[in-house]
Structure formats: C-alpha cells, structure tokens
C-alpha cells in the first residue's frame, strides 16, 4: 500500500515537470527560429517580472483570471463545458454596474448588493443553458457560446446614451458607482493590490471544500465520471446539471467585480472582454485544482506582464501568445501521457498479481 | 483534516512570499534611460491598418527623419484591459521615450493616470480630450470631413442608395455617421441611407476585415452602390467586397486609401477618402517637444485647419470638385453646422 502511494506521488510530479520542460524546449526553439536568443528572453522576463510593481500588476491581473478559471472548473468537474463564462461575467458586471450606479447606500450594503446582483445575473444567464440541456437536450457548448453573442447584443442595446449609459467623450459607460462602493485595497508599494484578491482566495477555498468535502460535491464529481452510475446511485442528473451551471454562472458573475469595484467603477465600452476564454485555458492548466489554477492564473499574468518588456528587447509581440498556447497544450498532453502510463503500469501489476494467484491455485490443485 | 492544514500552510506561505518580495523588491521604475524619442502606442490593428494607425505612423516616420529623433511603436491586442494599456504607456515613458502618444480614444483613461505618474514626460492622445498639465489632446473634425464624403456619395450614386458601415457603435464613429448622413441628405434628400455597425461595443470591430466584407456584401446586395466604411483595419475587407462589384464605389477613411500599397488591387473602386491628418498632429507635437515648448491642452484639427480633408487622388471625384468646394466653404464659413450625433 505504501509503495503504491510513492508511485502515485512520482506520477503526480512527473506530469507538471514534463509539461514545463517540454514547453520550455518548444518555446526556445520557436524564439531561436525567429533569430533571437531564447535564454536572454527568459532572463528579461524573470528580471522584469520579479520587480515589485510587476508583482502587484501580476496579482491584480491574475485575480479575475482565477475567478474565471473557477467558474469553468465547476463545469469541467461535471463534464460540462461552459464556454459561456465570457458572456456570463460581462452581462453580470453590466447589470451590477447599472444597479450599483443608481443607488447610494452605505458601503457595507452597497458592495455586497452589487456582488449579489452580479452573481444572480451570471447564474440566470448560465442557468438558461442548463435548462436547455435538461429539457431540450441542447448541448451546453452550443447554447453557452450562443448566449455569449446574445449577451453582447443585450449589453450593446442598453449601453447607449439615454438608455442605461452616459457618454463621456468617446467612451460610453454606465453611471459611476458611488465612492461607498469602492472595494478596499491592500496598500503595497508602489501600487496597491486590489482587495478582491481575498474574495478570489475565499472562492477558491469554498470551491475546494464544496467539491471534495460535501455530499453535493461528491454527487457532482460522480455525475462527471459517469452519468449512468450516478443515476443508479440515486443522484438526479438533470438537477445536478442545472445546479452546477447555475453555480458556475454565479462564480462567473464575480469575474468582472475586481475591475468594476476596484478599477473602472463603471461598465463601459472599454470593459475587459475575453477573460472567460482565458479562464478555460487556466482551468486546463491548473487541472481544475484550486491551487493549480491559482498558479496558472499567476503564470498567465506573469507572461502578459513580461511580454511587453520583451517587445522593448526586440522580440516579437506575439511571442507571449505562442508561449501561452504551447504551455496549455504541453500540460494537457503531458497529463494524458502520464495518465496512460500510470494506467498501463497498474494494469500490468494487477495482471501479474492475478497470474501469480492463478499459478498458486494451480499448484494447490496439483498437490491436492 | 490533514489536507486542510497542508493547503492552508501552502496558501499562507505563497501569500507571505509574495508580500515579502513586494516589500523589498526593486521597482521597475527605478531603471530606465532618457531622450529616446517618440513612443507611439497604437490601438488595435497595428501600424499597417492602411487607415488610422498608419496615418499616425507616417507622422512618426516623418518626425524621425526630419527631426532626427528615435522612436518606438507598440501595438494593442484585442480584448485588452486598462492594466495592459497603462503598462504599455508607462513602459514607454520609463524607458525614456518623450513624447508618448496614445493613438486612439481607448487610451484616454490610462494616459490620464500615467501622465500624472510621469510629470516630466509629455503625453498626447488622439481622438479624445484628457485633462492633465503634460497632456496634449488631439481631436479632429471627422463629422465635417464625412459631410463632404456624403456630398460626393449623393452625387455619385446611380441607384439612389448609399450606406455607411461603422466599426464599433461609439461616439467617435457616430461622428462619421452623422456627418455622412447629413451631407447626403442636404445634397439630395431622395437618396436612401442605410447605416450599420459591425459590433455594438467591441473594439474588435476595428480589426475584423472579414466581418466588414460580409457587411459590405449585404449592402451591395441590397442595391447600395456607394459605401462609406469607418472601421480602421476592417475597412480593407469592405473595400475588397466593393471592388468585386462593377460600378460600386468605396469611400475610405483616415488615410488616403487610394494610395495605400496594400489596397492597390482595389484602388479603381475607391472613390475618395476622408483623410484625418493624424500625421500632421503627431509631427507638430514631436516638434514642439524637441523645441522645448511641448504642446498641451486641447488641439482641434478641423476642416478649416486642414485637419480633415477629402482626398482627390485617382481623380474619381474631379467632376464633383465645384460642388464639394462649395460645401466645404459653407462649413468653413459656419453657414452649415455639421452635427456630431446621428
């Protein structure tokens, strides 16, 4: 029993190690192919990325990424592919900004209210896809991606001067949130870290607890592994599909909050888009694990921060995008290779044990 | 239970490590050079968009050659956040580039912040007005230029149907739409105008030639024969679709698109372009910084200042010259007021 654990440990370390080494080798080859020195690139990235303002930047950038990855991961654990996190967080942030901008309440009411509105709107938007799947059998991949476009159009309709938005120069945005709705900041030098990082960490903790320490989480993972087995075990699969989509959407609702409550204080035409898709990559990278995804989100932030610096050193701007793609591919492939290898060794071992048993019983029959 | 504590410890360690590093780490602002020349931060689409950015790049090239200064241009990606833009601008400023120019209204907020952090550098923003002691806000009279395009379109159309394609439905592009529609209406009220946008509120609209191509095809199928596209890089897709149909005219935007080498194949279909002389504005600013008297405040480049104009290369609007000159004079004299909103 002890030995099996050791094997498991080695396998667990082997996969990320393999992925990192492979990704490094491939990106080095690509950078070298563009006629530049890859080692110098890494040096620039590490130097610049470890500066204090870079660290703050990376943490702030990683916070929404992490929340987005959590939202995607809830679906993944259930074998649901929620591509709609992007639309969910945007429409959630939009309506949260509208509600927040039209009210002036004390901060301890206003902030939770804004967050709650975002989570509810995100949950409803994702819930539509869940209901379509259970009642009409529409694949959530199709419905969520369609809901992204519908969400963008709904926002586009309301985000106009005279409807729910106001004009400020060339930017059109919802009215500003009152000062009471500004989320606290952690005073670090030279720039502060947005306080929402704490909410993100808590969300990660809740994710871990619910999935691995509650009956609901067990049911969810069971459905993810095998629907028929879960059904036989008395789990209502349909209900689980809707519930997990709703949860995924509620977490997606949080994605826009660091920006809304900490940076822009409104939802405008310049509100960041596309974080939902980054979340998919980070959930894959972090293997749906709360800490793995945190590291993935930080890595993503690091790459984006240092990418600009590479441009100053004469490297192509696109190199960071290439590195990000290569890393995700390497992680997915490395884990699959290691999983298959593990499965094979396990099978071989079981086979050997069975053969040994068979030999023993043969002998026993002969002697008898 | 054991797992809880391991995770908690790991979490605390990571946080502690991050913050302790933050406390003692060197800030990237502490290193850098000075007087490296022009720092140009592009909007999406990049330098070679045959349109808006390219016009700014021409100004930079001219300044580098004539004023013998250095320069560095960086490009925005789609789906950027405020943090990305701030970083691009502050990197340029901290590396010693002066002036630092944000090409496009998307840089409005970030310029304001970064300019406050770098008081010794002169910043400029194109297409937006930003407060700040060291900020030059460069805005253009797009609606006035578009009015003239509308005059040309109304006189040139045979089907009596013309259309406008905007990249993104925002205040800036609405200026183009408003001017164009007014110009058409006041020239020939019988001409029908269709105005559509590629995206309601996503800046991808300036960087999606395929979408513009589809939109233009739809407009052509509906019988429109003069199409004015204000959509940055996307405009090339629209021009390509229009060139495929005989007798249809494209009106270009920002740069004189007739003379763009990238669009050479289609140039016989380009009626004219509403030129926004971003290059002139960029050159003016760089020169002012070089002379030690940096421009700040708001600078409007209107029709009367030559900040916007209708290009005549190719000679396709030569037959309308008098009418266009007449319309221009009316605007310059203030007899015609062009609206900024449709």
Automatic annotation (TrEMBL), chain B:
Major location (coarse): membrane
PROSITE patterns hit by this protein: PROKAR_LIPOPROTEIN
Entry keyword Signal: yes
Any single Pfam family the record assigns to this protein: Bmp
Subcellular location per the Swiss-Prot or TrEMBL entry: Cell membrane
Signal peptide region: 1-25
Coiled coil: 310-337
Membrane topology qualifier: Lipid-anchor
Family note: Belongs to the BMP lipoprotein family.
Name under which the protein is recorded: ABC transporter substrate-binding protein
Lineage per the UniProt record: Bacteria, Bacillati, Actinomycetota, Actinomycetes, Kitasatosporales
């Amino acid at each position: 029993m002890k030995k099996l654990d050791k094997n498991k440990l080695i396998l667990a370390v082997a996969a990320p190690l393999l992925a990192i080494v492979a990704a490094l080798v491939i990106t080095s080859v690509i950078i070298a192919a563009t006629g530049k020195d890859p080692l110098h690139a890494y040096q620039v990235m590490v130097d610049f990325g470890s500066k204090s303002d870079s660290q703050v930047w990376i943490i702030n950038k990683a916070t929404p990424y992490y929340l987005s990855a959590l939202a995607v991961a809830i679906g993944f654990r259930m074998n649901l592919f929620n591509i709609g996190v992007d639309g969910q967080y945007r429409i959630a942030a939009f309506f949260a900004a509208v509600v927040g901008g039209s009210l002036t309440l004390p901060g301890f009411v206003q902030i939770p209210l804004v967050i709650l509105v975002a989570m509810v709107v995100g949950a409803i938007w994702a819930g539509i896809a869940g209901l379509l799947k259970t009642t009409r059998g529409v694949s959530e991949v199709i419905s969520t991606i369609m809901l992204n476009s519908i969400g963008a159009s709904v926002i586009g309709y309301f985000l106009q001067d005279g409807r729910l938005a106001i004009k400020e120069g060339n930017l059109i945005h919802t009215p500003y949130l009152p000062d009471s709705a500004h989320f606290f900041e952690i005073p670090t030098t030279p720039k502060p870290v947005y306080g929402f990082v704490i909410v993100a960490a808590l969300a990660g903790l809740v994710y871990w607890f619910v999935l691995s320490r509650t009956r609901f989480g067990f049911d969810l993972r069971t459905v993810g592994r095998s629907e028929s087995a879960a059904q036989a075990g008395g789990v209502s699969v349909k209900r689980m599909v809707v519930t997990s989509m709703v949860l995924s959407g509620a977490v997606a609702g949080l994605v826009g909050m660091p920006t809304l409550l900490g940076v822009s204080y409104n939802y405008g035409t310049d509100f960041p888009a596309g974080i939902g898709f980054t979340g998919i990559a980070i959930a894959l990278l972090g293997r749906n694990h709360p800490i793995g995804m945190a590291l993935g989100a930080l890595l993503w932030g690091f790459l984006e921060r240092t990418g600009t610096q590479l441009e100053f050193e004469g490297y192509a701007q696109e190199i960071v995008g290439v590195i990000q793609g290569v890393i995700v591919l390497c992680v997915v492939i490395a884990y699959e290779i290691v999983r298959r290898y593990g499965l094979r060794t396990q099978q071989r071992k079981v086979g050997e044990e069975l053969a040994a048993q068979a030999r023993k019983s043969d002998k026993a029959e002969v002697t008898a | 239970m054991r797992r809880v504590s391991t995770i908690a410890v790991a979490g605390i360690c990571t946080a502690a490590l991050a913050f302790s590093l933050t406390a003692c780490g060197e800030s990237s602002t502490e290193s850098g050079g000075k007087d490296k020349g022009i720092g140009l931060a592009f909007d999406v689409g990049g330098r070679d968009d045959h349109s808006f950015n390219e016009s700014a790049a021409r100004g930079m090239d001219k300044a580098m050659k004539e004023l013998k200064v250095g320069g560095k241009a960086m490009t925005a990606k789609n789906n950027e956040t405020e943090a990305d833009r701030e970083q691009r601008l502050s990197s340029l400023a901290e590396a010693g580039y002066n002036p630092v120019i944000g090409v496009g209204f998307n840089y409005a907020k970030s310029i304001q912040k970064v300019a406050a952090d770098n008081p010794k550098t002169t910043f400029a923003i194109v297409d937006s007005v930003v407060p700040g002691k060291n900020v030059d806000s460069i805005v253009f009279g797009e609606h006035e230029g578009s009015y003239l395009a509308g005059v040309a379109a109304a006189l040139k159309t045979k089907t009596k149907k013309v259309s406008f394609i905007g990249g993104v439905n925002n205040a800036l592009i609405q200026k183009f739409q408003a001017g164009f529609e007014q110009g058409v209406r006041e020239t020939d009220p019988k001409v029908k105008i269709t105005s559509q946008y590629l995206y309601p509120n996503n800046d991808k609209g300036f960087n999606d030639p395929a979408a513009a191509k589809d939109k233009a095809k739809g407009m052509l199928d509906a019988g429109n024969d003069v199409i004015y596209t204000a959509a940055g890089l996307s405009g090339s897709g629209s021009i390509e679709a229009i060139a495929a149909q005989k007798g249809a005219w494209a009106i270009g935007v920002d740069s004189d698109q007739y003379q763009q080498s990238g669009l050479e194949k289609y140039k016989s279909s380009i009626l004219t372009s509403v030129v926004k002389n971003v290059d002139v504005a960029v050159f003016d600013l760089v020169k002012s910084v070089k002379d030690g008297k940096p421009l700040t405040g708001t600078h409007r480049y209107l029709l009367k200042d030559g900040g916007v104009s209708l290009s005549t290369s190719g000679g396709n609007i030569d037959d309308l010259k008098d009418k266009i000159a007449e319309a221009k004079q009316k605007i310059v004299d203030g007899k015609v007021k062009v609206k900024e909103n449709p």
